[in-house]
Amino acid sequence: MDQSHGRLIGWTRATAGWAGRATGMLGIQALKLGATLITLGVLAFLGFGRKEAFLVKGDTNAIASPMPWLGLNKPIPWPVFGKVVAISAFGGGLLVSALTRWFSHGEN
Fold first, then answer.
1. Residue pair 67/74 in contact by the 8 Å Cβ criterion
2. CA 67, CA 7: separation in Å to the nearest integer?
3. Average pLDDT for 15-30
């Protein structure tokens, strides 16, 4: 069980209406179903139809517009753009992780 489920179950155990009911798989699945129904309700309220509410595969051969702030000065295909974004996100996360470890190393 990941940490988010642990916090959610701890909260539901402390809530009078859910006391003792959310300790098993049925309680967890009921919470997930509730979140799904809320999401679908918000989508319906915002005017999304049935086809627009679900993810579908788009045109992977489409061209992404130039984004100079990412270092992309000319239009490129989406598969190439996806790789650039993935590598940039990984590199940024790695940098933040390294800096956090570097600056908190002396505090332990």
1. no
2. 39
3. 66
